[in-house]
Amino acid sequence: MHRVHTLIVALLLAGCGDPVPPAPIQNRVPVTVAVAQPGELQLFQSAYGSVGALEAPVLGSRVPAMVVAVLVEEGDAVTAGSPLVVLDSSTISLRIRLNESEILRVAATGRELEQRLAGAEAELVQKGLELGRVKEMLPSGHSSQNDIDLADAAEKKAAADVRAYGKAIEASAYAIEELKARRRLLDLELSWCVVRAPDHGVWEVVSKRVASGDVVEPGSPLLNLILRSPLKGTVWVAESYLARIDLEAATRLDIGADLAHLELVPRALGFQVEEQGRSLPLYFDLPNRSGTLRPGLSLSAAIPLKASGQGLVIPRRAVRSRAERHSVFVLEDGVAHEREVTLGLGSKTEISVLTGIAPGDSLAVLGVVNLSDGQPVRVVGEAR
Question: Are strands 29-35 and 375-382 parallel, antiparallel or unpaired?
Answer without folding.
Answer: parallel
